[in-house]
Specification:
With 291 residues, the chain is mainly alpha-helical. It has a domain at 22-83: Alpha Horseshoe (Serine Threonine Protein Phosphatase 5, Tetratricopeptide repeat). Helices cover 81% and strands 0% of the residues. Helix 3 runs antiparallel to helix 4 (67-80) and helix 8 packs antiparallel against helix 9. The longest helix has 30 residues, at 2-31. It starts with a helix and ends with a helix.
Amino acid sequence: MKRFTVLLALLLLIGCTNKEARIKNARNFIRVWDYERALTELISLRKENDPEVQYLLGLCYLKKNEFVEAEKYFKHSLNINETFKDSIVRLYNRLARNAIKIDEPERALKFYQAIGRLVPEFKQASNLSLVGDISLEEKNYLSAINAYRQALKIDSTSKSARRVKHNLIKALIGADSLYPALEIAQKEYKKLKTAGNLLQLSEIKFALGKRYLAAARYDSAEVFFQSIVDNQEPKSLLDDAYFYLGEIYQKTDRLKKAIAAYKKVLRLDPYQKGIFTRKAKECLKEIKEKL
């Protein structure tokens, strides 16, 4: 019995020594970017309940761009304990920032999403909003929308979240998703009542008005242009809204209303040099010839 116990102890010692040697070899191969040979050392240990082994396996697969496998082993490591949590976050964060530097925001977003799945408490809203900003600047609206929505899932109440919502609306407008943009803009204006919120809300209504006018859906177009006129804000869109209302009235044979709307355009441009002023004059002349 005593001999058996000694033999078992020796076997365990040999096993531990072999495992430590493999981990050491793997780390040495990782240092020289030889991830295939590192995996060769580690693969026989893949079922070990050891956070370092699981972390190193994840690292090798991540460096080989095998992201599903990488995330699987990182998750195993974190489930055992959180020794390598900060290292995992740093790895993905570095990859995301590198992707941003080379103008690959969608790739960066995937790395930040991976961090979110592995370490849900990680504060990454600002990183996601940065991805959104870069995408928005590049007019990659769908990527921007995705990034901003991911950021707002994490933080939707802070001051920085207000800026994210503002930019999300801009991205939705860019993607021609006007009704989702309208819904968010209405909520933000109701809550904050700022001139900036009103301007953004009015811009969406103006775009919807133009869309319905082009489709000859005059009732719907009128609702949106009338809303801008009722608010008398923003001033930058007021003469445009009056002109399009005049056009709607003219097309629907409400000529007195059309004349009043066109005259509003003229009054809003005292120098009589604007493009809508010129068009309004032409329309007034056309109506007078019919009367």
